[in-house]
Write a structure and sequence with these properties.
This protein has 126 residues and is mainly β. The chain has two domains: 85 residues, no CATH class; 41 residues, no CATH class. It contains one helix and eleven strands; from the N terminus they run ββαβββββββββ. A three-stranded antiparallel beta sheet has the order 2-1-3, covered by helices on one side. The protein has a two-stranded antiparallel ribbon with strand order 4-5. A hairpin with a 5-residue loop joins strand 1 and strand 2.
């Protein structure tokens, strides 16, 4: 099955729709089908890969647009990538994965932590 993201204002994903591979033989074929189905020839649709996260395809295939484009994600046209909204002002975008990284590595202690933006640290979850 092929997945398509409908982009809204600011290239934010508003909707994700699944189209049969028999119909979506190419990205353009899927876009044409959706525009005809919804009678909205001016909507912007981008294909996304359900199995792609952090520029890695979970099933060993070719990664597509860095990340699966879920509702609320941003589509960056220059990077041709879907990415989450920046969670904290201190976090930095990994250009390879198009995922946000904290400036401090997550603790490797098998415990749950929450990011503390004020202290720029991981706090043990209580």
């Amino acid at each position: 099955m092929a997945h398509f993201c409908k982009l809204g204002i600011g290239n934010i994903v508003e909707q994700v729709v699944v189209v049969s591979n028999d119909i979506a033989t190419s990205e353009q074929a899927g876009v044409d089908f959706l525009n005809d189905l919804y009678k909205t020839p001016y909507d912007i649709w981008k294909q996304t890969s359900y199995n792609t996260r952090g520029n890695v395809h979970a099933l060993g295939g070719t990664p597509f647009r860095k990340n699966y484009g879920a509702v609320g994600y941003y589509y960056d046209q220059t990077k041709d990538a879907f990415m989450e909204k920046k969670p904290f002002s201190s976090w930095v975008l990994n250009e390879t994965t198009c995922q946000w990284n904290a400036p401090v590595a997550y603790p490797d202690d098998d415990k749950e932590h929450d990011w503390n933006e004020q202290n720029l640290s991981w706090d043990l979850r209580e």
